[in-house]
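Technical annex, item 7. During the second reporting period the consortium partners agreed on a shared format for inverse folding records so that results from different sites could be compared directly. Each record opens with the tokenized structure and is followed by the designed sequence. A conforming record, contributed by the partner at site C, is shown below for reference.
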């Protein structure tokens, strides 16, 4: 089977499709991944062929400013800020989809794929599949969970007109073959009533790195708290500078990190705060707080008592896979919805404001909350009962040969 896999967005988006890319290659299939250029390194060593075809991510977000002013089908600007639903639709189905389609088409015509496997916010792959008359399916997705299908299809029809494809009336036109999810029944994070997914348990993320010695040697005399705002922090900082829209409502990443360090310094715990390489000059951290650029997150989570997270979809799933309650500080995109849904399910609590005091109070509350811990362990066991990823591979094979 020949598979074209498409992805754009942040590094987290690439990690959403990475397990399936590896599994398809392991099953003997020819996989060509077409990512935005900054995502290509994620797929190094997978055995997949990687082609730089997608537009640069930050450059492609510049169209948001224009769409907020001019409007588009389903949205008439009124002078005020567009709501998050509109921003996400514009982010996913703006003019950059046409650019990506035009770059992907010659690659797809040469490959002649049997299937397109796409990340949930990447829609050029959907149009490529429609052009070639082949099936396409979406992997587990954070942004895809919160995209309004009716509004999205209206703008996607503009892209279809751009490239000479027939418009579609079906609001679910981007899911003709359903989708894949990696969360158990009853614990979906889809905001809209999406078709029933094929569920599977992704393998634990692979890492060649052990825990740094300073973390591996921490005493077990106090709870261990990991605070990580995700791989997208530097990207978000760039989006704020470019006025890209989606990141404008979030707190400055430096302010968030400072509040985390100051708040956790007052809690009786060992705390690890990852910065993603963002400089934190002049921060006065307590002796219990370890500030690092990054850690092998899935590995460290296995020994944590609490995870302070932006609630990106990958981090959320890693937290549930390891049975760790979440203290949530969502930033943008699907993260606020993820945090609300996780709180609704009893899997953690949101920090009400970005301040050291709120961080400390919420942390102490969750470390003492046995009910949240029980809820997370319940979901963890249900998740571990899902079929392996090889079952999802067989489903993709059946789509390609139907």
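Designed sequence (site C submission):
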């Amino acid at each position: 089977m020949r598979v074209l896999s498409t992805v754009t967005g942040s590094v987290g988006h690439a990690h959403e499709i990475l397990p399936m890319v590896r599994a398809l290659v392991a099953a003997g299939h020819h996989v060509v991944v077409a990512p935005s250029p900054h995502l290509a390194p994620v797929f190094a060593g997978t055995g997949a062929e990687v082609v730089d075809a997608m537009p640069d991510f930050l450059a492609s977000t510049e169209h948001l400013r224009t769409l907020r002013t001019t409007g588009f089908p389903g949205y008439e600007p009124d002078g005020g800020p567009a709501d998050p639903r509109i921003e996400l639709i514009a982010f996913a189905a703006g003019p950059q989809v046409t650019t990506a389609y035009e770059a992907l088409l010659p690659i797809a015509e040469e490959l002649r794929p049997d299937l397109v496997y796409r990340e949930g916010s990447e829609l050029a792959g959907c149009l490529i599949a429609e052009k070639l008359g082949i099936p396409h399916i979406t992997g587990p997705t954070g942004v895809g969970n919160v995209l309004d299908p009716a509004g999205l299809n209206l703008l996607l029809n503009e892209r279809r007109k751009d490239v000479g494809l027939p418009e579609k009336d079906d609001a679910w036109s981007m899911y003709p073959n359903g989708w894949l999810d990696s969360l158990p029944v009853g614990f979906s994070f889809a905001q809209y009533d999406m078709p029933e997914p094929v569920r599977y348990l992704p393998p634990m993320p692979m890492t060649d790195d052990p825990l740094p010695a300073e973390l591996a040697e921490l005493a077990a005399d106090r709870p261990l708290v990991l605070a990580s705002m995700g791989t997208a922090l530097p990207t978000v900082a760039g989006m704020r500078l470019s006025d890209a829209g989606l990141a404008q409502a979030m707190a400055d990443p430096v302010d968030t990190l400072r509040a985390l360090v100051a708040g956790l310094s007052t809690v009786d715990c060992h705390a690890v705060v990852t910065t993603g390489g963002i400089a934190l000059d002049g921060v006065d951290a307590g002796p219990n707080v370890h500030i690092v650029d990054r850690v092998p997150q899935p590995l460290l989570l296995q020994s944590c008592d609490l995870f302070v997270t932006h609630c990106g979809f990958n981090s959320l799933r890693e937290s549930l896979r390891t049975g760790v309650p979440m203290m949530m500080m969502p930033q943008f995109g699907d993260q606020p919805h993820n945090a609300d849904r996780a709180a609704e399910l009893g899997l953690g609590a949101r920090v009400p404001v970005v301040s050291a005091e709120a961080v400390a109070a919420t942390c102490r509350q969750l470390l003492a909350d046995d009910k949240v811990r029980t809820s997370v362990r319940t979901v963890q066991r249900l998740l571990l009962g899902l079929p392996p990823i090889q079952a999802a591979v067989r489903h993709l094979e059946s789509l390609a040969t139907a």
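The CA atoms of residues 60 and 96 lie 6 Å apart. The radius of gyration is 21 Å. All partners now use this format for quarterly exchanges.
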